[in-house]
Every structure is written in C-alpha cells, then in structure tokens.
Amino acid sequence: MEHEFTKQIRMILVSAFGDASEDIYEKSPLLQYLNIKTKSATRGAKARGSFANIYAIYVLAEDYLQNKFDKQGDYSEYAGARFTDLFQRQRELPFGSKLQNHALNSRMNEEFKKYFPRVEYLPILREPQTNRYWINENLLKIRAGKKNYNIARVIVKIVKKYIQTKRDAFERFVEKCEDLKSVSSENDAVVKVFISGLLAPNIDARLFEIASYAILKLYYHDQTVYFGYDPENVQEESLKLYKTGRTNANDGGIDFVMRPLGRFFQVTETLDTRKYFLDIDKIERFPISFVIKSEETIDELKQKLREGAEKQYSIKAIVERYMECIEEIINLTVLQQRLEEAIAQGYLRDILDEIIRQSKVEFNYDDENE
Question: How much is the pLDDT for 138?
C-alpha cells in the first residue's frame, strides 16, 4: 500500500539504514503494518486517526529502547513492562486520552494477524498472571544482506512523525474555524456546510464528539423545565449540557451530562453491544442516551442492539432491562435536524464558537501560541 505518508516512512528508513532501507521494509511486516495504519496522516483533521494500535506498538518499542535492549542485554530475561505504566504512557500521548486497554490486550495482535496471516509472530507478548508485556523482538530484528538491523528506533520515529502530522492537521482545523468567524453573516451557508461536514460516518471521533456537543448544547439550552419541592415553589430552569472534560473514557461511560434533568449521554461510533451494556453497567443501569456516528435509522440501530443483547443474554427479562436503559438514540440524521433547528433559532455562530473552544481544549491549542 502506497499513500502520502509512505514517503515519510521511507525517508526515515533511508536516514537510518541507507541502501538497506528498501530490503528492510520488504522484510518487516511490522513496518508494513505501520504504513497501513498511518494512511490518514495527510488527509486532514477530519480523517479518522488510528492511534490505539499504533500507540500499543509505540509504548512497547519505547520501553524496549529506554532499557537499551537494542544495544545491550538479553531481552528474553526482561521482566516485562507493567500494564499500568504502558497504559498511562498511552494516555499521555497526543490524542491518547480516550484510549482503553483493548489494543494492548488483544486488538492490535488480532488486526495484525488479519493483515499478515502467514507471519508466525505476534507483535505483543503478554503474561496475564503478572500483567507484564513485551514487544516481540523477532519482529524488531531484520536480516538484510549480510547484516542484522533493529527497527525499534525507527518505529518510534515513524510514530512521532505521524503524531506531529496529525497535530498539524488539527491545528489547521482550528485555524479554519477561526477564519470562518470572520465570514460575514451573508455567507452563513459556508459556516453551516462546514459544521454539517463534521457529522459524517468517516469523521474523526474527537471532532464528531466536539461537534455533537456543540450542536446539542445550543439545541437544548433555551428549553426549560419546572422544578420544585411543592406546587407553591416551582422554579423555571433552562436545560444545560455539560461536557465531562476532554474526550476521555475515564468517566464511567459519560461524555455529556444535562442539568437539571440528570440525563447522561455517551458518544460512540461502534455497534458492539458489549460496549453499550458495559457503559450501562458502569452507571448501575441508569438510563443513558447514545449519540451514534451512524447513518442507519433509529429503528435499525435499536434492532441491532436488541439482536446483540439477545445473542449475549438468553433471558428475555435481562434483555428488556438493558433495552429500557437506552433512553434515546441520536444518530447522524437527528444531529443534522437539531443543527437545523439550532440554526433557525440563530445559534449558528454560537455552535462554531463552541467547536473552536472545545477543539482548543482537546488538542492543546493554546491561544498564547497562535
């Protein structure tokens, strides 16, 4: 597979290995895998990034280098990296705050095997009893010509270059948003098209969550409810949607919270039933609304979730209990409708401002460095 970022990978390899670089690449399924996973690098901020599996490789290669196993020592004698250290390191990396443990535990190996079914080695080695991890050194050591090469250092360089390329794309995205602020009101259609473009199945998950929040916040904010402890003391309150910080998953499955109703919202792009019910279990089966990055109809999505529940739980009472916990499903069509309603009420520029504000928080875009 050749794409724009392939050129950057080849440049890094030539810089490290000279004339042997092409041979090393052809003999390295791990480098070829990174090439596959970095195809979104030059497609802009809206393209979905592939950080989970890439970072799983990166943190293990980094651990390998920090212990200088590329130069000395017997890696087979190494006690292994602790999961907590690797997981923390993943989340420290740019765009890594929402990553979970799936890539380290199984998903990276499963996907690698899908692309390279004939390769006898898996990239990540794990000892479940001790929860220690290793990168498979057999995939780091490449024989090219009459020499042996270790690719751990170039793996780290490739991933760092990918991170920087994606960061640059997101900074350009924020700058584009800022430029749209100066567009005259006569050209509001341009702003509307830009925001609508963030509601697409292939949009980056972070941008989708940010756009969803901005739209729903402005959609709900002038709706009111009445609360009181007795009929003589009832107060009118506006609905307020709050984001639970950055787009991270360390929140028990809650992305947005609405006051004063106490509604919970979770943004997702998967139809993995296990994940939905895990989120519900995390909050002790409290009703939750799902904002789903899908063009399928609400009925289709509900049916798929029900089928998944029936497959996972054979007892009808359990299935119904979980389905009752799905308070509302908001798909891409509903989000587009709510965007239209918010725009009709005059909140187009407010939505853009909220997207800019949340993007700067998410992508560490500091006003002082603009």
Answer: 97
Together in a domain, 190 and 293 = yes
CA 345 remoteness from chain centre: 32
**135 and 276 inside one domain:** no
Q: Which domain holds residue 264?
A: 183-369
- Pairing between β-strand 263-268 and β-strand 256-259 as defined by DSSP bridges: antiparallel
In single-letter form, the type of residue at position 200 comes to A
**pLDDT for position 40:** 67
DSSP H helical ranges for 273-314: 273-282, 298-312
Count structural domains, the chain: 2
Percent of the chain with pLDDT over 70: 91
Model confidence, pTM: 0.67
pLDDT mean across residues, the chain: 87
pLDDT digits (tens, 9 = 90+) for 270-308: 777 777 777 777 767 788 899 999 999 999 999 998 888
Q: Is residue 304 a contact partner of residue 311, using CB atoms and an 8 Å limit?
A: no
37 and 97 share one domain: yes
Alpha helices in the chain (DSSP H): 6-17, 21-27, 29-37, 51-66, 83-92, 102, 108-115, 152-181, 188-196, 205-220, 273-282, 298-312, 316-324, 332-344, 348-362
- Residue length of the chain: 370
Contact between 278 and 269 (Cβ < 8 Å): no
Structure tokens at 285: 């089966």
The alpha carbon of residue 80 and the mean position of all alpha carbons in its chain are separated, in whole angstroms, by 27
